[in-house]
Amino acid sequence: MEETTVRSKMHSRQRQIPFDVEHCSPIALRNILLDPCTPADMLERIAHVYYDDDHIARDLIRCPNLTEATLVFLALTSSDEIKHFITSTRVVDVVMEEDAAAAAAEAAKEHKPKKKLNMSQIVNKMTPSQKIKLAQTGAKDARTLLIRESSKIIALAVIANPKLTVGEVEFFAKSTSLNEDVLRKIGSNAEWCRKPSVASALVNNPKTPVGISLGFVSRMTERDLALLERNRNIPEAVRASARSLVIKKKMGKG
Question: Is the pLDDT of residue 60 over 50?
Answer without folding.
Answer: yes
